[in-house]
Each structure stands twice: as structure tokens, then as C-alpha cells.
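Notes from the 1:1 (GR / supervisor)

We went over the backlog. Supervisor wanted to see one worked example end to end before approving the batch request, so GR pasted a single chain during the call. The sequence is below; no edits were made to it. Supervisor asked that the structure be written out right there so they could see what the output format looks like.
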Amino acid sequence: MAFVKDMLRMWAHSWKRFISIAMITLLGVAVLTGIYAGCRDAFRSTDRFFDAQGLHDVQVLSTAGLSNGDIAALRKVNGVAKVQAERSQEVTFDLDGRKSATMQEIGTNGIDQPYLQEGRMPKKAGEIAVTRKFIRDSGKHIGSRLTVTPESASSDTSDTSDTNGADGTNETNGTDEAPSFPTKLTIVGVVLDPQNLSNPDGYSAMTSFRSTATTDYTFFAPSDGVTGTLYTSATLLVKGAAAESTFDESYENTVKQVTDRIDGTVKTDRQKARRQELLDAGNRKIADARAEADKKFADAQSQIDANRQQFNQQVDQIVDMQASAAAANAGAAAAAGAPNAAAAAGTNAPNPQLDETTRETMRETIIAASPELTQAKQQLDQAQSQLNEQKASTEQTLKTSIPQVRWYVQDRQSLGGFSALKSDLDSIQSLGNAFPIVFLLVAVMMSLTAMARMVEEDRSLIGTYVGLGYGRLAVASRYLLFALLACLIGGGLGLIAGFLGIPAFLLVVLQGMYVMPGLRLEYDWLYGSLGIALFVVGVLAATIYACVQEMRQTPAALMRPKAPRAGSRILLERIRPVWNRIGFLGKVTARNIFRFKSRLIMTVGGVAGCTALIVCGLAINDTVADLGIKQYRDIYQYDLMVVSDDSDASAMRTKVASDGRVTSSLDVRIESGDLTVAGSGDGDSGKAGSSGSESIQLVAVPEKHLSDLGEMVTLQPVSSGILGTSGVGKTGSLKLDDDGVIVAQSAASALGVKAGSKVRLTNGDGVQATAKVSAVNRNLIGSDVYVSETYYAKLFDSKDAKNTKNSKSSEDSEALTWNAMLAKLSGSDTSQTDYAESLEEDSSVMKAVSCAHMADSFKFDLMGAVVALIVALAGGLALVVLFTLANTNVSERVREMATLKVLGFFDREVHHYVNREMMILTVMGVILGLPLGRLVGGMLTMALNMPSLYFEVEVKPLSYVIAAVATMAFALLVQLFVNPVLDRIDPISSLKSVE
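Structure output shown during the call:
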């Protein structure tokens, strides 16, 4: 009982050490569990939402639409739980200019169900549910009416002629119809599209540029009133996928098995079957069209032949008249020389006969001499030439009118909203996995320092207990239980902060970027227990080491005071010119710092770790803060990007040119697409085994203006470096050519793509092609892929593939439609922003983006919140570390401080004597921690692979100053707590001998 009382008394006496260990454990456990818990709660709530709304696991698209036979074939695939055939249609409407939307049929099989936020779900024809983004942009509300205009149906889905029965058998009984929706609509509800959880007010909305292949909004309509026998897509649910977390690798493996089966057999078979169906149906149409065309061409040819015959008769009459006149003139001349012969011949002599060669020569001469005849002949020749061209064109059109059938099998990764959310959370979680390591190392170092001093102070008592027969384990339990209790209390408080405080903070920021219904905080018993156990093991290991170091001595040795450390010279003493100029107290301070190596290492290491964390957090903040400036002022040299629909491209360029604000411009084509790297081990696709998909902005550049791209965009080749660095080549050394594409660094870094890699590109029409990466260009925001006009034609089988290369102008061939313009503007940043806003009000403009506005408005709230959290926790850790080290330093030197007081030192002089050592050690830790923080910050950028973002590490000088000043301020704050301890030292009691 006395042993227990003495142990409790010892614990109460060491309350400062107890608080230090508990606080370090609290901070470490909070960091370890907090960021993880916030991301996990977001993952789980999103997964539950996806399961509740039936978000598809697999989506199948076809360039020729999907028939009932295709749907039946998908149902038979092993591992498919449900298949839902979906119909959609693109429409346009007027909303401060021409806007587009996708009319999406609400499925009846429970897949991709929109989440109702307000109002009710549509049930009747003409009723629709819209997204909150549309409500915000349009100002409309539930009950508002809207009239839309359907886009012209593509030939791929409207010129087919098979209708399959419900049982999957092919029954050709007429022409299939593309989906058609009502055009007079009434808003009855506001919903959330499960395929896109992005908050329309989030930062990602500022950097998205619409192409002709995407729409601005999605309208959800019931099946009532929807007509058409073809399906736009088929969505599938996979057996067993709902039981897995959609963000785990196990889910991806489950879905991949089904997609592989579809790609392996069903895709090929149905493409062939569908193609044959289209051929059979199309051949009849072709035969009818050819017969009709031949009849029209025959009538036109007959008309041309009649006109040419009439023309030839007129010319022949003139030829005969000239020939007769020539013959008469010749006869008159002969009669003058021989009158008797002429009289004998008489006046009825026949006209001379002309051979065909002479007649043709006379025809050409007569036509050339008459402007009227020349013009008439040219008109006849031109009409014949046009007829021949129409014949050839019609024949080619008939031959190619039947489209090729291509299937595209996609999983959830192809959804932009899903992949963005997953990458955001994964990247933030990677920070949560990295920082606790530093906290754990600091906790072990501080625990070792505190417990070693605690055991050393009780060495005589330990010797007494051992001498009285107490076991070493029983004696050591006094300190092990002390450390364990401190860890458990600190860890328990850390769990509260880690599973409640930090997640609540992060989720508030996340909900500003994404809409996540049903979000709630959850406790993970296993992870929380392991988090505490990790710090318990580390602290107890340090305590055991401290106990073993002391208890391996005999009880007699333990009961005697520890012998003072033998005197020794330090390195500075050997530098005589310096040492001789140092005062007495300076020499004492230098000896105290460098003679006690453990104190030096612990103090410098602890302070360096805390400083490095602060620098790392500030480095991430500086990096994010400079992203917009670097991208929109340094990399993008243009001031304005304008995008229009294909049909409005000419009007858009005319509008911009007529405003007189443009100093130089470059016409390009911009499409939204995808860049995919398939996992492989041959190195052809970047890193071995790399895989993934990234949404990109595909920018096609006219062949004759390839050199102008460098004037609008800074082209700098980059190569990946170590520790988050990258090698950047010389500006202007990169050129776009016809041998490959230039990929943005932001996409290349996320997918492991490098120069020479092979990637799969998907253009705005959904056509896929394998392309070679010629270079990786420095790019921080957005994933631009630049391609020349010729290489684009080669990749995607463009009509102008043959004559683009050698064309002198874009009008010489049927080239790409340049639906966008990059322009440099005159005027201030404010005027440029206002001009871009005014352009968006024009009906011919789909999107107008001012780089000046983007540079000023770009924000990354999620990363900023995490950085603020990390810096705050690192500052707290620095304060605890300095407090622990300062108190340990004082407790080790109580007799020394008492001696100084006996010698006549005033309290202020004693403060200066002790605090000067701590400040010097703190300065040394800061000097070491500043470059260490830059190093750690560089390493963390390698883990932050986020969609359309590349973190080019930037640490401003001010950040180094802030980190250093903050650490020094913490050291000065600690002095306020240490000085009263020094004042309370009693010289008489402290100098008593234990003998």
C-alpha cells in the first residue's frame, strides 16, 4: 500500500510531464484519425447515396444507338444484376443566349435515380425535374414553364431500320426512331444528379469549359411522352458491387470482371450483328435512293444533251454559212478569169463539202471570236462538270451512309464528378497519412526525454525499492503506468477531436464543394484503437528503454548520486581565435550545449520537426495560392478564350472581330474528352502498370497556325524530378507537330504519362483513338491536350485527312470547324473581365473566359482548410515540445541553478543564463527545420494527384520567416512558464547532499 501511495505521490509531483505526454499524444492521435475520419465519413456517405440512388456500375454507349437485342445480350452477361435501357435527347433553349440541355428519361429499373431535393418527381408528359444549377442560373422556380427545341437527330441513330422484339429476336419492320421528348415543359421538382455531386458554387465550376459535345444542364423527364425505339445508352448494376465500397479496389476488381466479359465477347458480337442489321436495312434505302438519284441525273443529262445539241446546231449553221460564203467568193474570182467557164457552170453549183477536222477548227474559231458563244459553251461545260461531281458525291454518300458501329464500355471512373470527388478525398487522406509520422517521431523523442529524466530523478528511490526486494518489473511499472495513463487520457481526448472536431471542420468545407446527402460522423473502433495503440507502443518503448538504462545497475550504485559527466573539450575550444574572444558565460553556455549530446539531439530534432511541419503547411498554402497566377498569367499568354457551338462559330468570330478589342487571335477547336492510360508493364503507357482516366480539354490547332500556338500558350517541356520537383525546359523549345500530341503536366503527372507514351484519346463525339505523346507541357490547372489539325484527322478519321496537310487555306477543304478563339485583348484586367461577361450574353457565344478574372478568383478552399488545420496542429506541437524540453532542462540542472543563486546571481541573470541555451538550441532547430520543411513539402506533392491540378511547389520567403518567427515566439512564450519555476528553486534544499 505504501508503494502505491508513493507512486501516486510521484505522479502528482510530475504533473507537467504527464500533461506534456498527454498533449503530444492528443495532437498525434487527432492528426492520425481526424483527416482519415473526415475523408472516410465522406466516402461512406457518398457510397450509401450511390447505392440508394442506384448509380450505375457500368455504362454501355454505341455510335449507332442500342436496340432491344443489345439490351437482351447485356442481360445475359454473367455477373450483371440489372440492365436499364435509357433514352435521352439534346435540346436547346433561350436563357440569356442559346443554352443546351440533355433531356434524360428517368429509368424504371431503379438505376441512376435522381435525388429529390425540392418539389416532386415528374410523372406526366411535359413535366421535368431540373438541377439546382439551372434554378440558380435561370431564376426559374417550381411551376415555371419552358419551351425547348430538339437538336437534329444524328444519322447514326436515325437512319437505321430494325426494330427488335422484347425477347431479343430481330424483327425488321420499319425504320427505328431516335428518342423524342415533349418540347413544352413544366418544372415540378429540383433534383440532384447522382452522376455529378459537384457543388455549382465550387471552385471546379470556374475551370470547366463546355464543348459542342456537352450540354449546360440536365432535365429529367418521365417515360410518359417519350417516343423512339432506339436507346442512347444502357446502364448496368453488377452483382456484389453494392456490398463493396465504391472507392475501394475490391469494388473496381468486381466491376472489371464484368466489363472484361462485355469487352471480350458481347461487344464484338453485337457490333457485328448491329452493323449487319444496318447494312440489310440500309441497302434497301440505298437501292431506292440510287434509283431516285439515277432518274434525276438522267433527266438532268438529257436536258444538258438537248442544250448542247441546240448549241452545236447553231454553231454548224454559222460554219455552213461561212463555208458557202467562202466558196462563192472563190467562184467569183474564177469567173472573172474565165467568164466562159462560169457561164457554163451556172448559178446552181453545190456548196463545197468540209471534212470533220476542218469543220471542228472552224467551230472553235467561231466560238472564240464570239463572247456570247464562248459564255454559252462555258455554261454547258460547267453544268456537265457539276452533274458529274454530284453523281460521284452521291455515289460516295450512298456507300458511306451506313455508320460503323462502336461500343464504349465505361465504369464510374468515367464520370467527372465521381472521379473528382474520389481524387480530392484520396489526396487529402494522403496528407493525413503522412503528417502523423512526424507527430509520432516527436512523441517518442519527447517521451524518451521526459521519462528518462523522471527515472533518473528517482534513481536512489529505485535502488532502495530494489534493495528491499521489489522486482525490477514492479518498480518499472510506476513509470510504465504513468506513461500509459498519460497516453490513454491524451489518446481519448485525441479521438474526440479526431472523430468529431476535425471531421466536422473538413466536412463543412467539403460540403461547400460537393453535395453529399445523408452525411454523418461515424466512429471507427478499430482505427481509433489502433491509433491510440500506436502512440502507446511508441511512448512505452521509450519508457522501457529509459528504465532499462537505469535499472541494469546494482541497488548500491543506484542509491548513490549519479557521477557527474567527465569534463571534455568541445570543438569550438580548438578554434582559439574564436574561443578566446568568448566571455565566461558564453563558454559555459557553449559547453552545456555541445557536451550533452542527447539534450542537443532531442531539442534540435524536436524543434526542427515542428518547424518543418509549419513550413510544409505554409508551402502547400503558397503553392495553391500561386496556381492561378502561374497558370493564367504565365502559362496562358492569351487574355480571352471564347467557345461557341459549331453552327455559331462564324458568327462568334465576326462578333469578336467587330468589337475591336482583339490585338491578336488564334482560331482553334475545343472539345471535352478523356485521356486514358491502360495498365501495362511494357512502359509504352507511362509508368509500368499505370492506369487511369482523366477528363481533358482537347485543343486542335489549324495546320497553318501551328507556330502561333506558342504566342498564346507558353510551351515548356517538363520532366519529372524527385521530391516533388520537375525539370522545366526552355520557353519556346517545344513545338506542336503532326507526330503526336502535347499533354498537360497536370494530366501527365496524375497518370504517369511521359514523352513517348501511348495514350487513348476520346474526342467530343465519343470517338476513341490511340495517340502518341510527343511531349509534356508545363501546366498547373486544367488538362489541356494540344493536337495539330492533321494529326487530329489521322486519329479520328476526319474527312479532311488527305488534303489538310497541303491545303493553302481552311476553305480549300472541308476542315474542322474552329469553334473557339484564343485572343489577346487591349485594356485593363477589369475591362477584360467585363468584356468576357458581355460576350456571354451574346447568343453566338457558349462560353467566354477571362484569364485575368480566373487568376484573381481561383481558390482551393478544401486544401486551404487542410493547410490551416495542419499549421495550427504543428504550432500546438511546437509549443508542447518546447515546454517539455524547457522543463526537462530545468529539472536536470536544479543544483546548478541553486549554485548560481548562492554565488549571487539575480533571478533575471539566472533566467538569461538558462533561456539563452534554449534559444540557441531553438535557433539551431529552426535552421535545420526550414530546409527540411521544403523537402517534406516537395515529397507531399507527389501524393497530391488531383484531377486537372499539378502542385508546383512554391515556398515564399515570407513563409520561412513566419515559420521561424512562430517557433521563436513559442520559445519565448515557454519562457514565461519556465521563469517562475527558476524563481522557486531553493538553494539550501537543492544543494543538500543525499549522502
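Supervisor's comment: The CA atoms of residues 378 and 916 lie 104 Å apart.
Batch request approved.
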